[in-house]
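Async update (no meeting this week)

Hi team, since we skipped the sync, here's where things stand on the single-chain job. The sequence we agreed to prioritize is pasted below, unchanged from the tracker. I ran it this morning and attached the output directly underneath so nobody has to dig for it. Comments welcome in thread, and please keep replies under the output.
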Amino acid sequence: MILVTCCLSLFLVTMDITIVNVALPAIGHDLHASLSGLQWTIDGYTVVLASFLILGGSVADRLGRRRVFQIGLALFTVGSVLCSLAPTLEALVAFRVVQALGGTMLNPVAMSILVNVYTDPKRRAQAIGVWAGVHGIAMAIGPLLGGALVQTVGWRAIFWVNAPVALAAIALTRRFVPESRAERPRRFDPVGQVGIAVGLATLTSVLIEARGAGWRSAPIVTGLAVAALVLVALVAYERRRAEPLIDPRFFRSVPFSIATIVAVIAFAMFNGSLFVASLYLQQTRGLPPFRAGLCFLPIALALVVCSPLSGRLVGAGDSRTALAIAGTALALGALALLGLDAATPLAQVVAALALLGVAVGFANAPITQAAVSGMPRAQAGVAAALAATSRQIGATIGVAVAGAALPVFWWLVLAGGAAIAALGWLATGAFARRSVRAVQALVESP
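Output:
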């Protein structure tokens, strides 16, 4: 029941992303939004998630994971209701921020709860496989339900469905989830937190607005300079801090570092693809929302099938194979979409989208397992939040890049698939295992 309860939060957050993607053309028409405005509808949500997920995990480790989890569910519900009432695009983006603030207290905290419940590595890997499978179920329901609601009721209805799921999760949490805290929680790091938020928001703004303003324009050049300076200053500050928001010692683990890079690449390519495909199916091909949602169903089915298989591979210590399959599937899917236009056979598009689902299904479990394995359970919230943050950073960058580099986007996806397959080989081996043991001993020492 604890696993079911925690999976409900993942279901909420994932379904919300896929529902909104299907509704983008309707939102754009109703609120008179440009392409960059639609990008902000997605990225206004993911920027906040990426910026504050680590803080959410850290707060939960300190104040209590069950308590923070319930607060997040309540705030997510409030944000959803406000989104359904948004009168303008600016208001919708603002209310998506409220949703995201609730979301920062959900998935990393839920993963932290699971890590502290499933102490056996094999059972934990299997639970992570189930967790990833729920991601596929939400992916399946989101486009279909979203398409049906947009076509029959209107895009505002897509935010109504969150409330009953969140209320059920709150009730189950009160009944089944035990309270837990870190024995030695870390101190808050306001400077590091502000640095992450400012740097990521600035970079996202640059990527979204560069297509209209031009890469050589003063605002874009200035934004790139600010983002770079913030990154350099943040790294320098965190290295000197006794208890940093992002512990640099974690990245001495080769599998953890590579999993972070893989998460950014995989979810950048995947979320960018969803954004492009949703607009393509409805605007270029003229499909109604429900039929467009049906085209995303193979992605979800692939996730449902492949996520447990990936969990078994990871549980057996074979992350290399899982990542090799993920990278190959992503590259093949991109290869099928090169030169995408209105004349491309729809069956070819759907098959390519299914391959993207295979890629994420096999990449998810190795990413999460690398984040939480070899780290002390007392810091499980922060470690899980780092993995989730990498995913959200990738999602944010992917949607921004999809609009800025649309003509060559599928070439970027092809390169991303090749990179994942190559990184999977580097993440295993004796040297990588030694680095995990060394980091564990280092982090657990006083």
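Quick observations from my side:
The chain has two domains: 2-186+247-444, 187-246.
The domain at 2-186+247-444 is CATH 1.20.1250.20 (Growth Hormone; Chain: A;).
Reply here if anything looks off.
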